[in-house]
Design goal:
Elements lengths: L11 E5 L2 E5 L6 H15 L3 E5 L6 H15 L7 E5 L2 H21 L5 H4 L2 E5 L2 H4 L3 H4 L4 H12 L1 H13 L6 H11 L2 H9 L8 E3 L1 H11 L3 H8 L5 E5 L1 H4 L1 H7 L8 E4 L5 H8 L2 E4 H37 L2 H4 L32 H19 L5 E3 L1 H12 L3 H5 L1 H11 L9 H15 L4 E8 L7 E9 L3 H10 L2 E6 L7 H6 L3 E6 L9 E8 L16 H17 L3 E6 L2 H14 L1 H6 L3 E4 L4 H16 L4 E6 L3 H5 L9 E5 L9 H14 L3 H17 L10 E6 L6 H4 L4 H4 L9 E2 H15 L5 H4 L6 H10 L19
Helix pairs in contact: 1-2, 2-3, 8-9, 11-12, 15-23, 16-18, 16-22, 25-26, 25-34
């Protein structure tokens, strides 16, 4: 993102095809201007878009500037902005950018319109990230924080505490009574409930930290405050799951207005997120735990029958008269049990079947279904079944039919509520089984069920798993494209861009890959196909163990460590491949050679170890010692960590990171894509591998002032088929002299590149590839729009609305 410091004279207000855009920095990149135009065209057409914009060119601030300016000028034409990110740090970054933008808008808006510019923007995350109650916040995992919170906020817990308070007449004062009650409840939640809808959040931009601060000041629960404020907010920033996973979306995003604008940022893996949202894995441990859950439920039902039989009878009557009508599972927010795992429009609006209306009958049927699943897990070889076939087996083997399965999730939710069970963490296993049952009962197409007795890679270790795999990425995202006015998927690596509309089955109004304008050639992508001994290098399966390949790969890193200052990052195709190569390098002395120039750190499958290694890597780079970080494509580091400036002067991609191609689920998905979308297996596999490689390689450039080497070390990258799938902003710099290099030629190129980059960079030169206020006004006038200040920019009427 452009990081110019903002002063009064420096920022820009300009006319973009009749729209007043507030941009809080002095200069605008040409690609940012182009990006804004594409976004505006899609918004004008009330349509969707897929846009690829190079990393380090200020995508976030461009999106926010254009869309919030559009909201300001045409408040009736579009609703809130729903900005979806993948991680909490990304969410915080978006809200920090929005704060800068908002401050600038309020200072520079036309006189008399100040009030119109005030917006309410907030981020929503899990209870774990927002809780301010010390008793709950100290719990370890997210699940235990959720369970502890429900223990204090469920409606029946609160009613019980109230009754007890009223009975304790021995208490000396009202204050003592309240204190006594609050020790069993959450005071922050109680205070928020007492005020109810009158708990108003003042306009402004709130990060998670700001919400917690407000919660502490007002003694309100930040999590539920954020949840009740979402509806009134102009900008909402949260995780993909809140919109794509039906279980969460049904609770959080159900009531958003249809004319909202949705942005999926860093959306290169959106198809995988959609598939995971509708897939369920069951292992024998899960079924054991589900069995224990059923025993607990039986005991609880027997207990309730003796103490409060009416409660079960009331539930039965509600179910007889229909779930949807009577709100048998109307959720009060304290309970917050998950919504149905099925996409909202596919949820059946029928009466629950008679055989599962009584609590004990439903639990008996669940027991039979779990037994049937156990039997399926005992199969000695791999079995792949379509949902319809699986249901037929379930009817024959367990006596459970499709209609019963379809209602399992809602019926379980209703039962947990009736039995007043708040510790949902304990019932995760049974919920997973109900989730599995509901999905197979509802969907016939786009799913497959695969039973594997062991992992193919470790055939001697029995680890049976029953996988319900969603094969159609468009199922989870379809309601989003159908409901909301404009949906944008955007990323720095969204190539080949035309494949995404096919995978997600949507019609984009705009679809474009933008180029990077550079004053100096600050990125240098090269393809190394062979070693100095002219032997080809590749991570292909038949060449993996070749000692010459391993030796040549080592020589690349030794040469780079000698000639490149600061940090170098190397990515391997898998953990096992990386470990194998490192052990061979250790035996042949290559690690020792590298260590003479730089320290070596590596990513492991342990998150804490990796964080520590990253921290020390940064310290080594800061100290000027330089370091090498060895990492894995598709790992944590490849997705979320930036190696900007001196933390990454070169990045090496060893091999082509294909998925494990013998995976049964992958094979099933490839078959589905071939049959339904006519996407060839090899095309999809290459697309998937290259997007992962682009993601790794793109880590090195995070702004235009940055520079870095991008090394593709595998002969397969030399083929046009692979290179054409790279983002254009990378492939356009792959000139003929940077292809088909041997290791010694590559090192010569890298030294020349580093020497050129080390020359002083005149700030004036940058101005040639930047737009300032004068330039954008000139463009506006050239298109027949007035240029200049905001006063003569705000149009009185929108054309065509």
């Amino acid at each position: 993102t452009t990081t110019t410091t903002t002063t009064k004279e420096e920022e820009m207000i300009f006319n973009l095809e009749g729209l007043t855009v507030y941009f809080p920095y002095e200069y605008l990149y040409p690609e940012q201007y182009q990006y804004m135009i594409e976004l505006k065209h899609a918004l004008d057409a009330k349509g969707h878009g897929a846009l690829e914009m190079p990393t380090g060119t200020g995508k976030t601030i461009t999106l926010l500037s254009l869309i919030t300016s559009y909201q300001l000028q045409y408040p009736h034409a579009c609703g809130k902005l729903i900005y979806c990110t993948r991680t909490v740090p990304e969410m915080e970054k978006v809200l920090a950018e929005l704060k800068v933008l908002q401050k600038y808008r309020e200072e520079n808006v036309e006189k008399g319109k100040e009030k119109d510019t005030h917006i309410l923007a907030l981020g929503l995350s899990s209870r774990k990230n927002l809780c301010v109650n010390p008793k709950v916040a100290e719990e370890g995992s997210r699940e235990s924080v959720d369970a502890r919170c429900r223990n204090l906020t469920a409606s029946w817990v609160r009613e019980k505490a109230k009754e007890e308070g009223e009975q304790q007449e021995t208490a000396k004062t009202v204050v003592e009574n309240i204190k006594n009650r609050n020790s069993k409840l959450c005071e922050f939640y109680e205070d928020l409930e007492a005020i109810g809808e009158d708990a108003v959040v003042p306009t402004g931009v709130y990060t998670l930290q700001d919400l917690k601060e407000l919660g502490r000041q007002k003694k309100w629960c930040p999590y539920f405050l954020a949840r009740q404020t979402l509806q009134k907010a102009n900008v909402v920033v949260y995780n993909y799951q809140y919109l794509l996973d039906p279980k969460v979306a049904g609770l959080v995003s159900r009531d958003f207005e249809d004319n909202a604008i949705v942005v999926f940022d860093e959306a290169h893996n959106i198809d995988n997120v959609c598939i995971e949202a509708l897939s369920v894995n069951l292992r024998s441990q899960t079924l054991d735990a589900a069995q224990r859950n059923i025993t607990t439920l039986n005991a609880r039902i027997a207990e309730v029958k003796q103490t409060d039989r009416k409660r079960l009878q009331d539930e039965y009557e509600r179910l007889v008269s229909g779930l949807a009508n009577q709100g048998a599972i109307s959720r009060q927010r304290g309970e917050d049990l998950m919504a149905n795992p099925v996409i909202s429009e596919d949820v059946v609006q029928e009466v629950i079947p008679g055989n599962i209306r009584r609590a004990e009958h439903f639990v008996a049927i669940m027991r039979r279904f779990v037994e049937f699943l156990r039997h399926e897990l005992r199969a000695p070889s791999v079995v792949q079944t379509a949902p319809r076939m699986f249901i037929q087996k379930s009817e024959a083997g367990g006596g459970v039919d499709a209609k019963t399965l379809k209602f399992c999730y809602d019926r379980l939710t209703s039962l947990l509520k009736t039995l007043e069970i708040v510790d949902t963490e304990e019932f995760v296993a049974l919920s997973s089984v109900a989730d599995f049952a509901t999905l197979i009962g509802t969907y016939d197409q786009g799913f497959t069920i695969i039973m594997e007795p062991y992992d193919e890679r470790y055939p001697h270790i029995p680890d049976p798993v029953l996988q319900l795999a969603c094969l159609d990425a468009s199922l989870a995202v379809k309601p989003v494209f159908e409901k909301y006015q404009s949906v944008f998927i955007t990323s720095g690596t969204l190539s080949p861009i035309d494949l995404y509309p096919r995978l997600l089955k949507f019609q984009p109004n705009v679809m474009k890959s933008l180029m990077m304008t550079l004053t100096r050639k600050c990125l240098c992508p090269m393809v190394i196909t062979r070693g100095a001994d002219q032997q080809h290098i590749s991570s292909k399966f038949d060449m993996r163990e070749d000692p010459n390949v391993i030796q040549n790969y080592g020589k690349v890193l030794v040469g780079l460590a000698q000639s490149i200052p600061d940090g170098i990052v190397a990515f391997f195709v898998s953990y096992s491949y990386m470990e194998n190569i490192i052990s061979k390098w250790h035996d042949t002395g290559i690690l020792r050679e590298i260590m003479q120039h730089k320290l070596i750190f590596m990513e492991t499958q342990d998150v804490v170890e990796t964080s520590l290694a990253l921290d020390n890597y940064r310290r080594a780079c800061n100290a000027g010692r330089g370091a090498v970080f060895l990492s894995v494509a598709r790992g944590k580091v490849a997705e979320g960590i930036d190696f900007d400036r001196h933390y990454g002067r070169a990045v090496v991609m060893y091999g082509v990171p294909y998925q494990y191609t013998l995976s049964r689920i992958l094979r099933a998905r490839l078959e589905y894509l071939r049959e339904t979308l006519q996407i060839k297996e090899q095309d999809f596999l290459t697309f998937d591998a290259i997007r992962q490689a682009s993601q790794c390689i793109g880590r090195v450039i995070r702004s235009k002032a940055d520079y870095g080497l991008m090394v593709f070390a595998d002969k397969r990258y030399n083929s046009h088929d692979k290179r054409s799938k790279l983002p254009k902003w990378i492939s356009n710099h792959m000139t003929e002299e940077l292809l088909n290099l041997s290791t010694d030629m590559a090192l010569t190129v890298s030294r020349t590149f580093m020497r050129n980059m080390s020359q002083p960079f005149a700030a004036g030169e940058a101005g040639k590839t930047l737009f300032d206020q004068k330039k954008v006004d000139e463009i506006a006038r050239g298109m027949g729009y007035p240029g200049g200040s905001a006063v003569n920019l705000v149009p009185t009427k929108r054309i065509g609305v």
